[in-house]
């Protein structure tokens, strides 16, 4: 099987290349593919000659998007639509990655796919625009909402905590936002399985919108404590987590207080369930610190 993936250096694109096995991954990005240019997208995906497409490229600077909403919409909105149009023309199933930020975070339970959307910031609005464009342009698409993505590569929360823990004895971390920490490697495994099924089975119920996050929930402070506890097993010094409120750490973009997503539909329809976030996070920390130790000893 041959899968075209938009994005070259992102966490999910990198994870897909690592987890691909016998599947051939064709990673597409600038200058070959420019999401803001319809013809560039069409030409790159046509040349890729793929069996399925994963749209993993996105404008992800959540805070900067408050000043660059037009740019965010060009990439996350119009660009997603261009990918969907190309997928429809090629007859290839599309897996489009979206986000918990399409919700306002006001519910007191995990969000279901059919819950009302209501993004509170520019990034969320741009991603919701992309979802709508994908749904309108390509019936052969699965929109996959995920959240709190981390991995052994790229910029993410786990790597930031490990870096801060090298020089600090205490780190203040937000404790009043809840979500589902999700490994990009687990996302890649799920996408590969779902893409293979979509390429073989035209059933409409396999398409639509799905939530896809790690099992279990946490606050950012919970996640930080798990990172530091695992790091201690590698000989790192203890680091205390000072639990703070969102108001204590103001940001240009308002984050959802509740980012929890319910994954029951994904398990029921596709038979896919991501592992526990604690299990996957431990593996991520182990890999990062084992790799750092190997470099020091080389």
Question: What are the defining features of this structure?
Answer:
six-stranded parallel beta sheet; 43% helix; 298 residues; alpha/beta; single chain; two-stranded parallel ribbon; Rossmann fold; 12 strands
Order of helices and strands: EHEHEHEHEEHEEEHEEHEHH
Give the termini separation.
37 Å
Average pLDDT over all residues: 95
CATH class of the domain at 2-151 and 182-215 and 261-275: Alpha Beta
Q: Would you report the number of β strands?
A: 12
Q: Indicate the radius of gyration in whole angstroms.
A: 19 Å
CATH topology of the domain at 2-151 and 182-215 and 261-275: the name is: Rossmann fold
Trace the largest sheet across and list its strands: 2-1-3-4-5-10
Task: Write the CATH architecture name of the domain at 2-151 and 182-215 and 261-275.
Answer: 3-Layer(aba) Sandwich
Number of DSSP helical runs: 9
Low-confidence stretches: none
Sheet having the most strands:
6 strands, parallel
Explain what this protein looks like in three dimensions.
43% of the residues lie in helices and 16% in strands. It has 298 residues and is an alpha/beta fold. The protein has a domain at 2-151 and 182-215 and 261-275: NAD(P)-binding Rossmann-like Domain (Rossmann fold, 3-Layer(aba) Sandwich). It has a 6-stranded parallel sheet, sandwiched between helices. A two-stranded parallel ribbon has the order 6-9. Strands 7-12 form a two-stranded parallel ribbon. Helix 3 (69-90) packs parallel to helix 4 (122-137) and helix 7 (220-232) packs across helix 9. The mean pLDDT is 95.
């Amino acid at each position: 099987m041959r899968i075209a993936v938009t994005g070259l250096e992102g966490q999910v694109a990198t994870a897909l290349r690592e987890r691909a096995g016998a599947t051939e991954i064709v990673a597409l990005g600038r200058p070959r593919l420019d999401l803001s240019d319809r013809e560039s997208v069409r030409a790159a995906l046509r040349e890729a000659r793929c069996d399925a497409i994963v749209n993993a490229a996105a404008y992800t600077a959540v805070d900067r998007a408050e000043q660059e909403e037009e740019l965010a919409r060009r990439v996350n909105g119009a660009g997603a639509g261009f990918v969907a149009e190309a997928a429809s023309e090629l007859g290839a199933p599309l897996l489009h990655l979206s986000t918990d930020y399409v919700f306002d975070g006001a519910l007191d339970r995990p969000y279901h796919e059919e819950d009302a959307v209501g993004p509170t910031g520019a990034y969320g609005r741009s991603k919701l625009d992309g979802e709508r464009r994908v749904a309108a342009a390509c019936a052969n698409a699965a929109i996959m909402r995920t959240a709190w993505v981390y991995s052994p590569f790229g910029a993410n929360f786990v790597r930031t905590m490990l870096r801060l823990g090298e020089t600090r004895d205490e780190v203040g971390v937000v404790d009043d936002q809840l979500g589902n920490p999700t490994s990009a490697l687990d996302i890649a495994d799920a996408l590969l399985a779902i893409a293979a099924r979509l390429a073989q089975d035209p059933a409409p119920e396999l398409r639509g919108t799905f939530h896809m996050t790690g099992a279990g929930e946490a606050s950012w402070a919970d996640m930080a404590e798990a990172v530091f506890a695992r790091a201690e097993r590698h000989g790192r010094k203890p680091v205390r987590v000072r639990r703070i409120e969102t108001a204590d750490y103001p940001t240009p973009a308002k984050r959802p207080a509740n980012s929890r997503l319910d994954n029951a539909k994904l398990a029921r329809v596709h038979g896919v369930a991501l592992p526990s976030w604690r299990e996957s996070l431990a593996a991520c920390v182990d890999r990062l610190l084992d790799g750092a130790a190997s470099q020091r000893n080389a």
